[in-house]
Structure formats: structure tokens, C-alpha cells
Amino acid sequence: MTDSREKQVPPTSKACGENGPWREALADPPELKLPLLWQGEAGERYQDLPRDCPPGALFTNDASTKEGGSSEPCRPEGIVIRFRPCRTALNVSAICDYTLNCYGGCAHGCVYCYARFIQRFYPRTEPWGQFVDVKLGVLEALRRQLRRLRPGRVFMSSACDGWQPVEAVYRLSRKSAELLLAYGFSISILTKSQLILQDLDSFADRPVTVGISLSTLDEELAHLWEPRAAPPAKRLEVLRAARACGLKTTLMIAPILPALSDNRQELRRMMEVGLEAGAEEICVDAFNRRPKVWESVCRLLEAHFPGLVGWYRRLLFDETTRARYLTQLRQRVVQVAQSLGVRRSVDICF
Ligand code: SF4
Q: Which atom of ligand 1 is the closest one to the Cα of 115?
């Protein structure tokens, strides 16, 4: 039984039109090319699941998995999706008033991602980026919380990308966003996915901020560090489309990759293209030390930039080197922002 306030959701705004420039881009989002095969059992008692969702405990995009085959979840070369129960949807946060993550894990698999800390609480045999937990009951939990919480700002999502590929199947982020708005909450979205494009027109004229993040504009470099996220140019299309819908927009330049995207030209270019795409605000963050991240970073550097391993190690773990680097980087960011005349729109987070 849903709360009556859900019926007060304003009708979908057509302010963005049915044929916006993003429709074409959406036709073949790069994240959705992998085939999905279903297997397993249970899970149907949850209202979250779409009607056409097979009552499967897991599915994988490993094409070698046969439908109806083993329910053994681990498929090393694929992305394993499991269901897990969720009793609390909104968490109080220092970033915003609340955070909401409808999924555990993230198929984008960014090498620097600090959200891998969740593996401490939900150990998985697959490496980061190759598993996703779909949170069963997240909408019911959210409804329960919304009935008693004071409205505030919700960050979607702090420990996953809410619009990663599984969102195309479950739509939990979209449905959660609709619930939040119906209860008078506002939303900040940060994504590296074009899947958000199909939801933008329903957010038009509502308190939703859409942000994308960029660590570099170099597509090959981005593919190395963010292997299954949309390429930078596609993310910028999201910003453009969000602006076309009249939404507030943010560009997150983060993390700046030491010795790879931290030079003046690249910083300037990232700010320029972000502003051209309609970013109203730019947040910049450095490459940070995070638990469990060094191992994957080191592996990438050894494979592709062996000469940078020592530099990254000093930068992350030697306090003097780190302090000096961050001071210089901060000065560089300020100078670039000033040269573009946007210093007041640039927030430096380090
Ligand atoms: S998109 Fe965000 S949450 Fe997902 S892997 Fe990358 S950094 Fe982590």
C-alpha cells in the first residue's frame, strides 16, 4: 500500500521535449551492450521488482552462463548481480542531509573508487566493478522513512552510481527519486552514465541537481581508469541535456589524476568544456588516499605507467610531498579558474 502523497507527483514535464538531442545518444548507451542472462530463484515478495523481472536471485552478463544453469554466483569474467535485503534506505550524511544508494557495488569499476570499502561489510568474491547488489525492499524502506523524516537534500549516490547499467532493469534510482520529490525532498545526482538521460524530463522544474564527474578528457585514459563508465564526451551530453531541461548542473572534476590530468592545459580544458556544456558550478577534488584503493591504482600504474608508481606512492603516502603537491595543485586550479573568469563558481574540495 503506497502513501497517498505519492499521487501528488506533478505530471511529467515535457519541457525537454520528446526529441531532445540526447534521445539519439541514448539509443545505444555504451554501458548496455553486454547481454544479461537470468538465473536463480526467490525474491518476488518485494514490491521493488518490476513486474517483468524474473524471480531470479541473480543474473550475470557472462555470455557463457546458461540460463537455468548453476546458481553459483561467481562468474569472474562477468558482472554478477545479486539481491540483498535493505531495511534502511536514507542515511544521514555530512555531504548532504541524506545519502541514498539503491545498489551495492558499481559496475563502472573505477580504479580509484573508494566505495569499495563496502566490501568490508558485504564481502564478495568478485573484484570491485564486477558485482552489484540490488537492494530488495529499498522503496518500501524509503517510504517508511519518508513518512517520518523532515525533508532535506539527498545525495544520489555516495557509494555507487545510481544510474549504472542495472538501473535500466530495476529503475530503483528513478523510482526513489520520484518518491523523494513527492515528499518534498530535493536531490543531488552525480553520475558517469547516460542512463540518467531518460529521466531528465521527469525532473524538469523540480528541485534536482544533476552532476557528472570527469577525471580527464582523454578517452583512452578515462577508459583505463573508469572502464565501464560512459566516455567523457557522453557525460558532457548529460550536462547539456540537464541544462536544456532547466535543471541545476554541476561538474565534478575528480579525481584529478597526478601527472596525467593535473596540468594547466587539461584543467583549463575540463573547465571550459564543462562550462560550455552548461555547468553552473564546478567542484574540483584531488586524488585522495582511501582505504583499499592503492592496490588497484598500483596495478594500473604498473601495467600502463610504470614510471609513475613511485610518484603516486610518495604523493599519497609521504606527508611532505603530498602537502606540497596539493598546495601547488590548488594554486594551479585557482589560476585557471581566474583566467576563465569563473573563480567564484569553482569550489576546491581539497
Ligand atoms: S562511478 Fe563512482 S561509484 Fe561507480 S565505480 Fe566509479 S567512482 Fe565508484
A: 8
